[in-house]
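User: quick one
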Amino acid sequence: RKEVEQDPGPFNVPEGATVAFNCTYSNSASQSFFWYRQDCRKEPKLLMSVYSSGNEDGRFTAQLNRASQYISLLIRDSKLSDSATYLCVALTPSSYKLIFGSGTRLLVRP
Amino acid sequence: GEEVAQTPKHLVRGEGQKAKLYCAPIKGHSYVFWYQQVLKNEFKFLISFQNENVFDETGMPKERFSAKCLPNSPCSLEIQATKLEDSAVYFCASSPRGNRGDGYTFGSGTRLTVV
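Assistant: Done. Structure below.
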């Protein structure tokens, strides 16, 4: 079983739609979680950190449920520029390495 | 500078040839990480350094892969006797403190193609 699992998609949505991505992790020792965005095999870029209390950054909302070991990302009012692969990431506390999910591809159509 | 500089951007090697990739971390960042991304977005951790010391090498295929981070030089990742399955994009990242995943900065990667 992979340490971080995601639905690979693709999610194909019209502009303006709301879309939600889910992710589960298996290492209960992991403390820190993130959503990264990757465009066309370029370098991954941090989208946002994920906190148990939930956090919002504009149209993006991330949530962490430690009891279920479940992470989510909600994108409201999708834009064409949101088309990318979204990577769910956990930080290994002992060695500081990032463990990546395989990514969820989002396609936003006009 | 405020970017992680990876060179070269593209590298083509015949099977069995050596490949050497370079990474200049952001000045002041103590940690350097190497990741391999193969098809289907699978990121694999290879090795990390704390300054010039190996911090975690659990992901390294030790038979053919080696890496160094020497003072006042770019870090390097070397693959001896490349194989077709080594074809991937190799990303380097640096971080001022290892325990903050939001402090990572990734380089733009080196695309290695083994033919």
